[in-house]
Amino acid sequence: MTVRVLDFYADWCGPCKTQDPILEEVQEELGDAFELQKVDVDQEQDVANQYQVRSLPTLIVENDDGVVDRFVGVTQKEDITAAISEAGS
């Protein structure tokens, strides 16, 4: 099963800059267990609207069945890894 994490961000968003190193840690830890897709809401408003993103940063965890989890605001590594694990099972 394919697991994706969509990271909705903007260059001007301070909390988004806080989220980035956390996501990098998750990628280092889990490797190929998921695919990280960064979505710049200023460039891809249609995608942000499709997922009804209203606040930044927003992380959406999805698998082949659809959205499994959604996090709004800076999210800790443990919460992200748990959601990825759940989405992959």
TrEMBL record:
The record marks G14, P15 as: Contributes to redox potential value. Residues 1-89 form the Thioredoxin domain. Keywords: Disulfide bond, Electron transport, Redox-active center, Transport. CDD domains: TRX_family. PROSITE patterns: THIOREDOXIN_1, THIOREDOXIN_2. Disulfide bonds join C13-C16. Pfam families: Thioredoxin (PF00085). The record marks D7 as: Deprotonates C-terminal active site Cys. The active site is at C13 (nucleophile), C16 (nucleophile). InterPro entries: Thioredoxin, Thioredoxin-like_sf, Thioredoxin_CS, Thioredoxin_domain. PANTHER family: GEO12009P1. NCBIfam families: thioredoxin. This is Thioredoxin. The lineage of its organism: Archaea, Methanobacteriati, Methanobacteriota, Stenosarchaea group, Halobacteria.
